Amino acid sequence: MALVFLRNYYDNFHEQVIQNVIRYHSGHLAISAKNFEKNHSTQIFLENGSQVSNWLKNRPEVLASSERVLFSAMLSSARGSTNLMMMAVEPKAEAQVTGFSAKVIKGDFLKEAKERSIVLGVKAAETLSVDVGSKVVLLTQGVDGSIGNELFFVVGLFETQSEADKSVGFIQLNEGRTLLSLKPESFHQTAVVLKNEEAAVPFKILFEDVFHGDSKLEVFSWKELQRPIVAMIELDRAVNRLLMILILCVAALGIANSILMSIMERTREFGVMLAIGTDRKEVIKMVVIETLLLTLVGVLLGNLFGWLVTGFFNQIGFDLKWLTAKDFVVQGAVVQTVSYPTIRFYNSLVVTAVILTLALLVSYFPARQAGNLTPMKALRSH
Amino acid sequence: MNILEFKEVSKIYNQDQAGIQELSFSVREGELIALAGPSGSGKTTALNIAAGLDDFNRGEVNLLNCSLLNLKPDEVLRLRRGQVGFIFQSYNLLPVLTVLENVEYPLALKRVRQAERMKKAKTWIKEVGLEGLESRMPNELSGGQQQRVAVARAMVTEPKIIFADEPTANLDATTAEMLLKLFQRLNEDQGTTFIFSSHDPRVLKFANRVITLTDGKLLNESAMN
Known about the structure:
Chain A is of the alpha+beta class. In chain A, 53% of the residues lie in helices and 22% in strands. In chain A, strand 12 and strand 13 (333-335) form a beta hairpin.
């Protein structure tokens, strides 16, 4: 049960982290001006990104792409101020790339017709003591050194239950360009979501091939942008494998102990069988088959309870808050403490196969011990 | 023709306790032999060694023209399965099997088809007077009934030789008489060789020959009527 649930839980947890990275951060791929991802400087931008945008729009592999102007800003209200990572985006395109628009709990996400609109996270709004309809002043520095300063109206509040709720804000792309004194069609980054995650690497290679003459461009897959996340997942998987091995060792000891106890209790019975003329191989076979059948019943019940527990936590969520205190962020990517594990039959198959193999291995030696008993010694035992 | 030969066979359990010492005797095919003697005289030890259930330290044992010394454990098992029946004093029924399954078991080991197994097992259960108790578990039977199941189990394969350790020890007089007459009938009709260990006079009365042991040694052999 524990193995089935843990495997389901961890697989889901890792997928959730990856989805968070893709849906709240960079998409599958991020195309940006050279060195932007390294330095995150507003000075590094693509002056004319229309060639890239047009090419992306015509590729069948691309589900959506969103041009972004990214900059740090100070936001002030009548009651407070805070620093935010601002994303100036085209609302429709961004809604297809990231999941923020779906997380708006009050008001709306950006609407193109509405000027000077801003969408904030609930915690940022709390810090500023603002709500939908409130005014805030955004202050930033343009790429030419000028000070960009504008009044915005809060049109929506989102809640992702993550760090983004207090550190990210959205405005219209053209307004972002104006604030930073960027020319039209300039941007820092285009986030790309593909129809199939597996296509990320081949698509990146294709892009590099098509745009190999443009030294101002560079493209990164989410794995390259989020190396700490990939490393964290790999490390977590390694720790999980270790945990699984430990659980399997305990299970093996349990099985071996049960078989040995059973053989000790049934020594006389084996003596009778051998005395009547049962072949030693038959005795060994019998013990091994009995062990496998018992283990199979245990594994089936374990799977059943594993599915039940997985299904239960799929509904209510399995929250590690009592262990980790709160969600955390690795290089901007949210790692939520709550996960909704799903039943994965592949995990059940793996667990069943591994435990049955283990039972076969640990039962053989006690079985051989039973088969090698001499009838009279066995019959004399109590 | 000798079906069993003991040639100066010794079995020592430990330094202080000798099971049998340089015991020699032989049994001809079709005989009904009783090993007699007081408790601790080595009757059961001799019977166990003769049936290949126990090993021995010295001497030679020939059973059904095979020297047990030269046989590997698996070969002894096959010999026992094919041609030897054994009735234990403490019944030794398989506790997880019913009466019918216990009696059927030796036939299953010989790969006899199920229909035939059932037929033979039921015949022998009837022979020992347990008809109607086929589906009972051993722990639902009295000591005497368990002993009769053990007898049916030993008989069902129609072995050439049957060893019986105190076969009447747990039986009332009527059942003991009934079983001994059954042994005698099999001995006379089918030529099955019987070797009992017993100090029960009722058993000794049925034997062709009585081999008396004391302190693990042969005291005397006497032919009966």
